[in-house]
Amino acid sequence: MTTFPHTIHFTGLNTPVRTETSIRNLPVIGTLPPEISGAFYRAVPDPAHAPMHDDDIVLSGDGMISRFRFENGHVDYDIRYVETERYKLEQQARRALFGRYRNPFTDDASVAGKDRTVANTTPVWHAGHLFMTKEDGLAYEIDPETLATIGRFDFYGALKSETFTAHPRVDPATGEMFFFGYEASGLGSRDIAYGIADKTGKLVSEQWFEAPYCASVHDFAITEHYAIFPIFPTTTDLARMQAGGAHWAHQQDLESWVGIMPRYGKVEQMRWFKGPVGVSAFHIVNAFDDELGTHLDLCLTDTNAFAFMREAGGIHRQPWDIQGALTRWTFNLADAADTFEERPIGPPGDLPRLRDADQGRPYRFAFYCSMNPQGGPPLPGGPVGAAFNALIRIEPGNGRVEMMGLPPEMAVSEPVHVESAKDGHDGWLLAVVDRRTADEAFESELWVIDAGNIAAGAVARVPVPVRMRAQVHGAWVSDAQLAAQAS
Ligand code: V55
Ligand code: FE
Q: How far apart are CA 218 and CA 231, in angstroms?
């Protein structure tokens, strides 16, 4: 098969681009704030080959590492494939050899036992190294300058877990990276590895614990004192996978759980709190401790946001019928009860972004993607098939919500936050904005937005003269961070 299926996963903003390119000196409309100097790395799934199965999905797409480089008032653009073992095997064969999403029982026999990950979810910067991550395997290290793939990263042989999350958390004060890997000992296992790498990148701790059931665990959180593992009822079944079926199926009647342990403690100290049935969250904005307790702010929905995970569980709901809110769960760890409090703190949405310096701390503001009530029907594209068309700024301390709502036929990807050196300035956001110009024609721009005044829209726009496929997550790496890597 050499043609792509005509499904939401391969059309609209999800149309495969499959092009590695480098463009210097992109045009700039407006004025770039000179203090924005560094690299905006983006993870873009883009299938190099037509899939083996017509029901394949965006999340299977080969990872591409993309970069907007801001330097002396110029902006450069590069995008390259992550040369995973899977990518190289398929390049050689000139066709897809790996089958359905996270189901090795559907692969071509020639690739049995090979690394299936596509490293397509989050660019991660830690201790002067750049990685591309996906939760089903280990990270791949990337050269931050050339974007060449260095190889699979196992902490220099030290990591025992077979997997590494796409959402590690870096403590801004200590420089440590806290992370986990689930299905740590293989498909369908309940083992979760909890790890800490010190500020030099050395693995200093890896402990394993068992989840209440084998769930899709996309994100976790740290505070200054705790590590927090939310478990939502999207579960796996080895027999179903062996029969060629889905890795994940959401279970609307099963309870959720939250495991909390001291972040430098022993996994035996984990306390499990019982959460609502059927709910789901992929991304956590932040967590922190204060005099009221330990707070977990998450993008919560009343079922799984991915249609393919709902449908495998026999749940048939239209996307617009899914309820959700930015939600705060508050735990009283001084109390012995296994319950917690819940309250909404913002409109529904996902893809949250926090100042790096606020990680695990009380925070004044954060951002995430949402839907503009005046934005018309969403553009087809992105991992769930409908692109966001609004950016939200939330101040959880006072409930203030601001929005950058896009007009119809436009979409916004997850932003990154760039710190400002000016006192009292909230910094800048960078985000890719797409516009549909004809039925299947799209144009993309990188927008620079004042983080303190998002409703004003872009202060500068950088049109990109090539097609761009929808991104998942991104990372901003400042010049200072890049320089530390070079030395
Ligand atoms: C997510 C993304 C993934 C994945 C599982 O954002 C979950 C959620 C891009 O790949 O494999
Ligand atoms: Fe994610």
A: 9
Among all bound ligands, the one having the nearest atom to the CA of 57 is: 1
Q: Are 78 and 69 in contact (CB under 8 A)?
A: yes
From the CA of 462, how far away is ligand 2's center (Å)? 25
Long-range contacts of 250-256 (CB under 8 A, 24+ apart): 250/278, 250/280, 250/303, 250/304, 250/309, 250/310, 250/312, 250/313, 250/315, 251/278, 251/313, 252/277, 252/278, 252/303, 252/313, 252/315, 253/277, 253/278, 254/213, 254/278, 256/230, 256/231, 256/232
Residue 127 is inside which H or E element, if any?
none
**Pocket of ligand 1, beta carbon within 6 A:** 45, 59, 120-121, 134, 218, 282, 383, 472
Please compute the mean of the pLDDT values over residues 419-436 and round it to a whole number.
97
Cα 411 from Cα 398, distance rounded (Å): 28
Within 109-216, strands assigned E span: 122-126, 129-133, 139-142, 149-153, 169-170, 177-182, 191-197, 203-210
pLDDT digits (tens, 9 = 90+) for 150-176: 999 999 999 999 999 999 999 999 999
Six token digits for residue 81: 């494939």
Residue nearest to atom 11 of ligand 1 (CA): 59
The domain segmentation of the chain, as residue ranges, is 12-486
Give the separation between CA 440 and CA 428, rounded to whole angstroms: 31
Q: Tell me the CA–centroid distance for residue 34 and ligand 2, in Å.
A: 30
Q: Whose CA is nearest to atom 4 of ligand 1?
A: 59
Return the ligand 1 atom nearest residue 472 CA. 9
Q: What is the pLDDT of residue 487?
A: 56
Q: What pTM was computed for the model?
A: 0.98
In terms of residues, how long is the chain?
487
- Centroid of ligand 2 to alpha carbon of 219 (angstroms): 7
Q: Which two tokens stand for residue 110?
A: 């020639």
Please give the distance of CA 76 from its chain centroid, rounded to a whole number: 23
Give the atom of ligand 1 at the shortest distance from the alpha carbon of 136: 11
Which residues make Cβ contacts (< 8 Å) with residue 119, sequence separation at least 6? 63, 82, 84, 132, 133, 134, 137, 139, 140
Q: What is the CA radius of gyration of the chain?
A: 21
Intra-chain end-to-end CA distance of the chain, in Å: 47
- For 7, 279, 360, the CA distances from 342, given in Å and listed in that order, are 38, 13, 19
pLDDT of residue 1: 54
Closest C-alpha to ligand 1, atom 3: 59
Give 3-state DSSP helix, strand, coil % of the chain, rounded to 5: 10, 40, 50
Distance CA 42, CA 80 (A): 11
The class that CATH gives domain 12-486 is mainly beta
Question: What separation in Å is there between the alpha carbon of 122 and the centre of ligand 1?
Answer: 9
